[in-house]
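Technical annex B. To support the medicinal chemistry partners, we prepared a structural model of the target in complex with thymidine-5'-diphosphate, based solely on the information shown next.
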Amino acid sequence: MTKKGFFITFEGGDRSGKSTQAKYLADKLLKLKYDIVKTREPGGTSLAEEQRNILLHSNTKFDALTEAYIFASARSSHTEYLNELMKENKIIVCDRFVHSSLAYQGVMRGLGIEFVKEINEKALRGLNPDLTFLIEISEEEFLKRTNNSEIDRIEQDSMKLENFHKLNDAYRKIAELENNFIIINGDGEENDIHEEILEITLNKLEEKGYSKTLK
Ligand code: TYD
């Protein structure tokens, strides 16, 4: 048995449904008696949750570079906490991680993927996802889902159609560069998508020595 924690992340553009799927997966794994921690970025520690508030809701203006550093700094306290959980063999389900920074700050904001990788390197503290679900939706589905919901500071840009395509292309490119990425079509029924994600996860967990009945 080679357990030393299992780190699952969910990625995708806004309105892709990834937060819903992250929640469904975490809830189901908990029901199956796996030792789960559900978390999110930006956030996951009390400091990073305060930074989340600045990043998403502050009226103070700051530029893309400053934004990228705040995301990386929030990530730093989060990975310190997550590495402790990994040592305890926890299964972590995280809504967004560093690949969001590569897509949003690197591509949508134009800072460049390589540069954003560089400024996140130390903040990652060696932590890499064992499995990443990239949820993709079509333009048609995106347009259906853009109506009448409140939008935050980042979404003021990411909800523009042009940026929807930029983010999709960026995530595709990132997925090609990484091992562990699984692309999921997010256009379908929530429950079908959940079943697909669950099956993949359970197989990977079994490979890693986690079993359903033993914690
Ligand atoms: P999101 O998971 O979409 O939050 P919500 O619960 O409001 O749907 O994440 C918040 C926003 O932060 C989202 O628009 C993407 C953005 N983001 C970045 O730009 N860079 C990052 O590194 C992360 C983690 C998120």
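Notes passed to the chemistry partners:
Strands lie at 6-12, 36-40, 91-95, 131-136, 181-185.
The chain has a mean pLDDT of 95.
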